[in-house]
Each structure stands twice: as structure tokens, then as C-alpha cells.
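Notes for week 9. Today we move from apo structures to complexes. The key idea is that a small molecule is not decoration. When we ask for a structure prediction with adenosine-5'-triphosphate present, the ligand SMILES becomes part of the input, just like the chain. The input block below holds both the sequence and the ligand string. Read it once before you look at the output, and try to guess where the molecule might sit.
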Amino acid sequence: MIELTNITKTFSGKQGDIHALKDVSLSVGKGEIYGVIGYSGAGKSTLIRCVNLLEQPDQGSVKVNDVELTTLKAGKLRETRSHIGMIFQGFNLLKTATVYDNIAIPLKLTGLDKQAVKERVQKYLDIVGLAGKHDAYPSELSGGQKQRVAIARALSHEPEVLLSDEATSALDPDTTEAILDLLLRINKELGITILLITHEMNVIQRICDRVAVMENGEVIEEGNTKDIFIAPQQRTTKRFVNSLFSHDIPDDLVDRLSENGQVAKLSFFGESSGDPALALVTKKYNIYPNILSGSITRIKEEAFGQLLVHFKGEQAEINDAFQFLQDQQVHVEGVTFDGENQRVS
Ligand SMILES: Nc1ncnc2c1ncn2[C@@H]1O[C@H](COP(=O)(O)OP(=O)(O)OP(=O)(O)O)[C@@H](O)[C@H]1O
Ligand SMILES: [Mg+2]
């Protein structure tokens, strides 16, 4: 659906060149929710702006629905862009226009007749749950309601792709949840492909099927959200994952634990697969597991659990036990300590 190949973008500034994108390739399938995460300045906005050519890449190919955008003439590009909706952190609503007009004005510009415009506005305000707010002005709406208007405005052009640049970053946690639920519903019910960028791992966790991690203008890691949560490879990816699942242990415990046995992080999918596996392991092997911390949450719609466990026993027994756990679909990762914080080795 979206195919970015070898995208390069450099900005020339007073302090020299900024290589915002360095040879980035990314592919988003039809109907997918794809997240790009990275810290500030990583190049996320530049990347997403290349998808609808708000930013013209210096090099590389941008294909949406098999159409190469970089070589399109202005008129054709405008038409292709109309199939790509976009929402932003700042909502970008017209302050002097009502909710109705915020959606209706751009629709009228596409040449749609008055009745059709009215029906579209109605339909999409209904979908975002703001049917009663036709005549309100943006200043009379909460942040979440403003973002709903912006989403309705984007959807009213019936796009196949929705691009989201930090759409929930200005919202409180509850409102963020509600907007993410809305994006999930839009994806499921309208079949719209969503490419979103964020610096918040909980956004990825809640709705994304796949994720790419960006740093310094490059994609440093990419994969299914589940796989990335279970076994992040790069340091930055680990930091993002740990931002949601931090298992801090008091310093005095750290010393004692390190001397005596092995600490491991167990990750598993499914409501209860971790517990029974751990119970079985104590029966089969001469080891004593002690749960230090644990959490269970959801990744998209699936339960995802993590346990930090201290295993006491002979190292050979512990190794066999780890192998057994892996065979039970529990991902096991040894944990070492660096003095201040627990670190997954
Ligand atoms: N129009 C521009 N002119 C010059 N430099 C730019 C321009 N747009 C972006 N940059 C630079 O390119 C780099 C990537 O910026 P970008 O906005 O893509 O980052 P980001 O990942 O979206 O960050 P944030 O999370 O803060 O929004 C930054 O160093 C930024 O200063
Ligand atoms: Mg940005």
C-alpha cells in the first residue's frame, strides 16, 4: 500500500547540512496499522511528510497503491493526495469556522454538491462521536473533541490511507486512549491503512501491527509489534520497551541476587501461559524461582505478560529450565546488573 524505497532527505541550514533521512525504506501493507517511533529529531515527521510529498525527498521512491508519486505532475499529485488523509498534533482547525464548516469547506473545494457535502459531514461526525457538535467553534471543544473533528475532516475525503503525526501527543492519557480506540475502529470498520508516528511506546502497544524504530534519520529496527516487545535488539528500542515495562529492583537486593543464582526476564503471550510454565519448571528441575516483579498488559488485542524472576540453583539446572521454558513458548532473557539499574543482557 505504501512503499518507501531508499529515501534520502537533507536540509541545508546555517550550521551545515542536516541529514534528516538517510536511505530509509519502509513498506506498509493494505489494512495495516504501522507505527514509526523515535526520539525528537529522529526524522519521523520528515518521513511521514514524504508519503504525501509535502516534503520532496532528494532521492528514492514513494509509491502509494503502486503509483510513483515523486514523478507525478501537479494535477495528478493533487488527485492522488486526496486519497491520503492526515492528522496532526496541533489539529489544524479553522478557528473562525464551526465544526460543520471545518469539514464542509475543504469538501466543497473538491466540487462536491451541497447535499453530498452535508451527508458526508453528518456521516463522519457520527463516526467520530460528535454528531451533536455541528455548530460549535473549535474554542468550545476539548483537545480530544478537536482531534475528533480533525479525524472526521480527514475521513470525509474517504481516503485509503491515514497519516498521523503525533495525533495524541497533546492529549491526556484517557483522551489518548479514546482517540486510539477510534483509530482502531476506523482501521477495522472502514479498512483504512494507518501510518502513524509517535514518541510514545504505549501508542505502538495499543494499536500497531508493525513498528519501525528511527534514530538519526535511519530505521534501526523494524518488525511485528509482538516480536519487538518480546526481544528488542537495539539499545534505543530497549529503552522504548523498558519505558513501559520497567522492573526496578532495590540496590541491596541486587547484590544478593547476583551472587546467588540467576535473574531472568520471562515474556509470554496469552492470559496464563507464564504461570503454569513456571509451576511446571519447579517440578521438573531442582531450582527455586522467586518472582521479583511482574506485569500483564495487552499488545493490540492480545495479553502480554512479563515476569522478572530470580532462579536459585545449580547453573546447569537453571540452563535446562530456561530451555524448557523456551519450549513452552516463554521467551527467556538473562538479566545482568550494572550497579544502578537492572539491565537486560
Ligand atoms: N524544513 C526544515 N529545515 C531544516 N531542517 C529541518 C526541517 N525539517 C526538519 N528539519 C531537521 O531534520 C531533523 C528531523 O526532523 P523531524 O521533524 O523529521 O524530526 P521528528 O522525528 O519528527 O522530531 P519530533 O519528535 O521533535 O517531531 C531535525 O534535525 C530537524 O531540525
Ligand atoms: Mg515530528
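The first helix runs from residue 44 to 51.
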